[in-house]
Write a structure and sequence with these properties.
single chain; about 425 residues; about 50% helix; binds s-citryldethia Coenzyme A
């Protein structure tokens, strides 16, 4: 297990003055990043709540998993820069790192890879769920349903208080997400499901189960595509306390089983402001269509009266470039070159990025391309339909979600999440009989 940095209690306190009263609150420091003010006694002391819609200034937990410095454009998984992991590691090694806190030894990596590989098959009856969906159902709708339904099958890994059952559930989710994601694609095409192969690595196996038609012809995985797929998984694996991770933590705080919690995370990720942005971004690029149309859409994005936003731009935390976007921009170029794809959308994307980054509105609001800006271009070139983009995001983020969930469950201070509100509705009033309304 990784060394858990204990928070440092500052000798200073935060003082809040309300009227003629002053209240003091402890300040804690972490291993890096902003300090926090512990306001857990504020309601008891002041009979007031804090108010922070969207949690822009709120730390919901202590965590040792992923650190983001939005000003520097820095992303660390257990201290390792994302650029180094994307270049030198692979997704299962990064999964081990996120789950356990340290890079595995060769023996640890070999055992982890074996354990995940031998959990990739799904219960045969799980296949029957698909028949209940329309063929044109959005694959994220299917993922929400099928992943949640895993808790109807794997009862021997739903006791959250049993460390071994937590580990087995985590392995099952990491291992089965590619299989189920590939099944959602196959179902939409009318092709048969493809069973996993234990001789392929994680990314190769996913491409095989998605694009292979083994009974008709042998599917040979393109190593460049498998490498790009693995890199995309690494870049999407975790990202601190984002909306879907916070959803998983909040669901888990009630003691819900891990499969149900991950299904909740999938639902949250689906939104176009979050993981659904990769699908929305590619649709936006097609709507823009040509480089000549870009200024019109930049103007729409800046128009306060127009709800249009440039999908794939902006971020709650990154107020500098998103380091993942940099890696993906390079990967987009490599994949399109390897496939000999001349996608005009790559040119539109590049020109949109150039123009936006020179525009004073985007500079002032610190809006840079985020992880979703280039991923869609790569995934489309690889043959994935647009609706599958967020499914792949969920596939990769599952290890981050389950690592954060496990960290929360192990936290002795963990309690059910239950925010309060600023009530602006009707005060007490008496019932009025219908004849008198
Ligand atoms: C992900 O949190 C994570 O870590 C998420 C994620 C992860 O790995 O889990 O990184 C993955 O979700 C990436 C983000 C993908 N979403 C998009 O690309 C959708 C487009 N982006 C926006 O919807 C927006 O930028 C958000 C939702 C990402 C961030 O929104 P915030 O932090 O709430 O910022 P905001 O909406 O308050 O915007 C600040 C200002 C506003 O203008 P003002 O009201 O101050 O005048 O910037 C403007 C916004 O109107 N703005 C944009 C814009 N994003 C923000 N204007 C035009 N186009 C945009 N994309």
């Amino acid at each position: 297990m990784s060394k858990k940095y204990e928070k440092k209690i500052s000798s200073e306190k935060a003082t809040l003055t309300i009227g003629d009263k002053s209240f003091e609150f402890p300040i804690y420091g972490g291993s890096t990043g902003p300090d926090v003010i512990d306001i857990s006694t504020l309601y008891r002391d002041t009979n007031m709540f804090t108010y922070d819609p969207g949690f822009t200034s709120t730390a919901s937990c202590e965590s040792a998993i992923t650190y983001i410095d939005g000003d520097k454009g820095e992303l660390l998984y257990r201290g390792y820069p994302i650029e180094q992991l994307a270049e030198k590691s692979d997704f299962l090694e990064v999964s081990y790192l996120l789950l356990n806190g340290e890079l595995p030894s060769e023996a640890e990596k070999s055992k982890f890879t074996h354990d995940i590989t031998y959990h990739t098959m799904v219960h045969e009856q799980l296949n029957r769920f698909f028949g209940g969906f329309r063929r044109d159902a959005h694959p994220m709708a299917i993922m929400c349903g099928v992943i949640g339904a895993m808790s109807a099958f794997y009862h021997d890994s739903t006791d959250i208080n049993d460390p071994n059952q937590r580990r087995v559930a985590s392995y099952r989710l990491i291992a089965k997400m590619p299989t189920i994601a590939a099944m959602t694609y196959k179902y939409s095409t009318g092709q048969p499901f493809v069973y996993p192969r234990n001789d392929l690595n994680y990314a190769e196996n996913f491409l095989y189960m998605t694009f292979g038609v083994p009974t008709c012809e042998e599917y040979v995985v393109n190593p460049i595509l498998a490498d790009a797929m693995d890199k995309i998984f690494i870049l999407h694996a975790d990202h601190e306390q984002n909306a879907s991770t916070s959803t998983v933590r909040l669901a888990g705080s009630s003691g819900a089983n891990p499969f149900a919690c991950i299904a909740a995370g999938i639902a949250s990720l689906w939104g176009p402001a979050h993981g659904g942005a990769n699908e929305a971004c590619l649709k936006m690029l097609y709507e823009i269509g040509t480089v000549e149309n870009i200024p019109k859409y930049i103007a729409k994005a800046k128009d306060k009266n127009d709800p249009f936003r440039l999908m794939g731009f902006g971020h709650r935390v990154y107020k500098n470039f998103d380091p993942r976007a940099k890696v993906l921009q390079q990967a987009a170029h490599e994949v399109l070159e390897e496939l000999g794809v001349n996608d005009p959308m790559l040119e539109v994307a590049r020109e949109l990025e150039r123009i936006a980054l020179e525009d004073e509105y985007f500079i002032e609001k610190k809006l840079y391309p985020n992880v979703d800006f280039y991923s869609g271009i790569i995934l489309k070139a690889m043959g994935f339909p647009t609706e599958m983009f967020t499914v792949l995001f969920a596939l990769a983020r599952t290890v981050g979600w389950i690592s954060q969930w496990g960290e929360m469950i192990k936290d002795p201070k963990q309690k059910i999440g239950r925010p309060r509100q600023l009530f602006i509705g009707e005060s007490t009033r008496d019932y009025i009989d219908i004849g008198k309304r």
